[in-house]
Amino acid sequence: MSWTPADPMVSINNVHKSFGELKVLNGVSLDVMKGDVICIIGPSGSGKSTLIRCVNALNDIQQGSILVEGQEVNDEKLNKLELRKKVGMVFQQYNLFPHKTALQNVMMAPIKVLKQNKASAKTSARALLKKVRLEGKEDAYPGELSGGQQQRVAIARSLAMQPDVMLFDEVTAALDPETVGEVLQTIKDLAEEGMTCILVTHEMGFAREVADHIYFTDRGVIVEHGPPETFFKNAQDPRTQQFLSQIL
Amino acid sequence: MNKKTDLPVMLPKPVQTPQALSSLSYWHILPLIAAMMIIPSLAFSAAGDELKSPLAVLKNWIPLLLEGFVFNLIISVCAMAVGTAAGTALGLGQISPNNSLRRGSWFVTQFFRNAPWLVLLFFAMFLLPFELSIAGIIIPLPDWFKAIIGLSLPVMANVSEIVRGAIRSLPSGQWEAAESLAYTRRQTLWLVILPQCVKRMLPPWVNLYAILTMATVLASIVGVSEVMTLTGRALAAEGGRPELLAPFYGFVLLLFFAYCYPIARYTLRLEKKFAVIN
């Protein structure tokens, strides 16, 4: 059985995960089709970040299955490097390499991991920085950039690996309010280009605007999900209603 | 809340500015040692004997003593090089995902870090053979070589801890970012983690070198012809005149001070520079 683009890009099935005694994921299932943008929302500690970290095997799972383009992630023999070439990830704390310039941050992985030739990697890295509107900041070190700029470099760095899916883990949570917009705009551009995106976010307005589908998690399960219009206007579950009333 | 109080505990604590060692000028120590060396001479000339004055005697021996001191420096540089190479490997072993490698490295590190340097030196001296025969070729192992090995053991253990500490001090996000970009563990270490550690490791590493340099005189106890051994021999050759002790050992102190104090100053500068970067 081989994977075709008509099958889900990411298929999460009945996933269980605990850290010691603490159960974080309690049977989560969801499918993401190619080109989909899905947002996972929910209260802190509901397991949303853990869930997307399992997709690129930063966390392992105890039970269940995660298929990325048909490849089982919950497998001891999994080739993690191959998986991570397909799945890009952007973190809350940017995690840029502080000893490298913006440009080096972006072109390093294509050269070292994908073995691209240096000149072409540099050209595409410049193009990516331009795409995230950071032209002229190529030689700046992360410490010289604002949070929003760093986060956009991080997005470019991830895109340089030409991933099929992008994971965004609360990428605006650590930003100053005035720089949130520029990062969200970058993600929105990506979504409009058809990049498959899984976002964990607290930006409800943004989720409503870009998402094709919203998932609400609480205590390790998906309580409710649906397209943004129905989800925000017509939440059925009392937990969802309570959460939305607190946050909106 | 601006009322004056007469309760001492309510008063703001005066800020104590520690008198930094660095405020001791390079030149403060010179008059002290000079006095140590000159005063016996004065006393001696006052006695009006016909023997040569202690300073004149010392002057004759200075070239030999300097030679001995250079030997100390060679031992220190070699022991540092060997210790750093082995210690880096051991430090990386301490963060290895392989359980037995990690535990073994931890044990070796702790064992040599908590052992007196002199005992390690003795062990190296008396446990290493005086020559090695590899495929029929006999390689002699001179005392100074064994001293280098003996001194590099504690250096190794300390470097191991410096490396481990520096790696652990980096945020885990650096590892995760590299992992999610499909770097192998080795690439992550060499391209992302270690380059960031060098800056953090430099001050303690330089500090360790200064300590090691001062410890090289331990080699005199096991008979290596370094500066302390030569000083002892020179004194014996001069008939063990007690008024020579202060000038001769004062001169040795001066040599070490002149070499190690700038290193200490440099370490302070490095630490300040690093503090700014953070």
Structure write-up:
The complex is a heterodimer of chains A (248) and B (278). Chain A is an alpha/beta fold and 248 residues long. Chain A has one domain (10-247): 3-Layer(aba) Sandwich (Rossmann fold). Chain A is built from 9 helices and 10 strands. A 6-stranded mixed sheet of chain A has the order 6-7-8-3-9-10, with helices on both faces. Chain A has a 4-stranded antiparallel sheet with strand order 2-1-4-5, covered by helices on one side. In chain A, strand 7, helix 6 and strand 8 (196-200) form a beta-alpha-beta unit. The longest helix of chain A is centred in the last third of the chain and has 16 residues, at 177-192. Chain B is flat. In chain B, strand 1 (131-134) and strand 2 form a beta hairpin. In chain B, strands 1-2 form a two-stranded antiparallel sheet. The longest helix of chain B has 41 residues, at 54-94. The chains are: A alpha/beta (248), B mainly alpha (278). At the A-B interface, helix 2, strand 6, helix 3 and helix 5 of A face helix 6 and helix 7 of B.
Task: Give the low-pLDDT segments of chain B.
Answer: none
**Distance between the amino and carboxyl termini of chain A:** 44 Å
Spans of chain A of at least 5 consecutive residues whose pLDDT stays below 50 are none
H/E element string of chain B?
A: HHHHEEHHHHH
Order of helices and strands of chain A: EEEHEEHEHHHEHEHEEHH
- CATH homologous group name of chain A: P-loop containing nucleotide triphosphate hydrolases
Q: What is the highest CATH level, the class of chain A?
A: Alpha Beta
The CATH topology annotation of chain A reads as: Rossmann fold
Arithmetic mean pLDDT of chain A:
92
Let me know the number of strands of chain B. Answer: 2
In total, the number of domains of chain A comes to 1
The main sheet of chain A orders its strands as: 6-7-8-3-9-10
Q: Classify the secondary structure makeup of chain B into a structural class.
A: mainly alpha
Radius of gyration of chain A: 18 Å
